[in-house]
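Dear colleague,

Following up on Tuesday's group meeting, I ran the structure prediction for the two-component complex that the binding team flagged. I've pasted the input sequences exactly as they went in, so you can double-check that nothing got truncated or mislabelled along the way. The structure tokens for the whole assembly follow below. Feel free to forward this to whoever is handling the docking comparison.

Inputs:
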Amino acid sequence: MSKVPAAVIGVGQTHYRAKREDVSIPGLLREAIDRALADAELTFDDIDAVVVGKAPDLFEGVMMPELFLADAIGAAGKPMLRVHTAGSVGGSTAIVATSLVQAGVHQRVLTVAFEKQSESNAMWALSIPVPFTMPVHAGAGGYFAPHVRSYIRRSGAPTEVGAMVAAKDRQNALRNPYAHLRNPDTTVESVLASQVLWDPVRYDETCPSSDGACAMVIASEAAVAASGITNPAWIHGTVMRSEPLAYAERDQANPRAGRDAAAYLWRTTGITDPRAEIDCAEIYVPFSWFEPMWLENLGFAGEREGWRLTEAGVTALDGDLPVNMSGGVLSSNPIGASGMIRFAEAALQVMGEAGEHQVDGARRALGHAYGGGSQFFAMWVVGSAPPSN
Amino acid sequence: MRDVAVVGFAQRQTRAFDGSPNCVELLVPILHELWEQTGWTKADIGFWCSGSSDYLAGRSFSFVTAIDALGAVPPISESHVEMDGAWALYEAWLKIQTGEADTALVYGFGKSSASTLRRTLALQLDPYTLTPLWPDTVSIAGLQARLGLERGAWDEKAMAEVVARSRSNAIGNEYAVRRGETSIDDVLAQEMFADPLRRWDCAPVTDGAAAVVIAATDRLPATCRRPAVIVGIAHSTDAADLGLRDLLRSPSAAAAASGAGGTEGVQVAELHAPFSHQELILRRELGLAPDIAINPSGGALAANPMFSAGLIRIGEAARRIWSDEADRTLGHATSGAALQQNLVCVMEASA
């Protein structure tokens, strides 16, 4: 039972905006899907199955929207799966689509993830009080700010590291035609001057709320060979790990589920030194400080050392390990799609199709997503060469 | 394909669960039962996958607390579909096919009684053109049943036969919320609920949860005497728009059956038909022979816990193999309005 090698042969994204009032929900998905199919030089007729992902249905007010979307997204008459694993869902969705190909069930699978957050208010959709459950007061920012404080206390990182991440990602976003936030004037100083929302997280260190969708076509080795695509992004490894929201001695600033996932991913892709062997990474950073936190969690830096990479410019577009070349979640955040955008941007890098935010000679890239209370993780490694494992 | 078998099954079904809005507490005794059945612990499980709905629970991320019920420390390889647990089983089956796991525990849960279910499900329809009219599940099924009566696809007696058999079969099912020795005349004597549907034609609102253990046949639990090997599993979807579909047909059900390798030789079929006439549609679409035993558990008309009822059909069908009652069985799940999405899982006693 060896896995069928699989690769990304098409990527499509919408323009991310606060409100995409120019399109319906099906229209939004089709914008991404049509671009992905065109990129893969395929039509709906070539697609065997569709895998849809999005975060909570309360964000749009439609229960299991893939049901009414089936026709618009080309799933009528085909198998369709709907994944929901909290914020990591965009990544998990790509992984489920990959497994359909790797299992040998299908040749070409279309996967799409989306969120049209302007249909509701995401912060309050996340803050519904639930009996017997710790409330998530004031949305995700209020939940994660104490983890950031804990990280700063432990690591002794200087205050401006968070601002450096935000300024870098917002500048990178200017090179990405799909990015939501485009503020050419953002600097470390301007970020530090912005309002504190949840101490120590400032307004400019926070992700926006976006409408958007991202789609990919994932193909088997045989389907890649039969296609006109000569630069596919081969999927070298995938992983998902979950842990409870709370348990004794849980480390919320450096969760074990993330560490375990990364260790599994490096082991199964034959990577012994991720810092040296990964050329660039798209990491889920909704609040600036999560860049140094995840650099440690992923094993790119030792414990309490992640901020030093950011401070030294290692994660800048021209650095040694560029992170969030697209501008990241800090610049575009349609929640259900954000994880898939990370996975797709990693693919674009090794396909050499990332345009103005292309990392020169990127051959192996990481896509990363997390969700819930830092408890659900999804990751993949893609490469320009077929997998050897 | 790698041979994978259903080797464990536990369920809880009740009319109205007196607990949290998502029923995750029910998973604790269910898991306990599965460890007893298999002799395994959570360390033996390579992959976990669940099905549930945020809208049913009335909150975002309803599945997050389920991770607590599992006791997922150390962290687990885990996923979730916003679908019935039957599709979670499909994802787990895929995972075993890739070789990344040898065993999986699949579960579904939901508290239908927390809201007015038929109205909540109206939110599954097109939000621009249909949901604003609030066509509820029972009314849509009523239109479908009426169409079948007027076109001569079935008659009142055929629907009543389904109801009488389901209720009578359910006598042996301790989890059924509706059961009792029932004749066709008893059914026809009931008053109309949503003409042409009587209350008994419609699945009862049910709370519950269920879980199934599957394993590659080279990694079976020692306790497993007669595994139910999955010989075919497939699913498909139809377009949603009720005005563009022939409501007397379910092409996705037929596609699922053929994708699963057909239904020849099946002796027992557990069909997830939330309305009596939908069983009649499914029998035709799945190509089931007339002598097949349908829903010995009583089926969805006896109990229909949302997001686990389809998974329960697979578990019930597997159980008939474990107990030597049958050599080849079928479990079916449905989702969406008027049989829009369907899954078929065919199982066989291993040689």
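Residues 137-151 of chain B form the longest helix (15 residues).

Cheers,
M.
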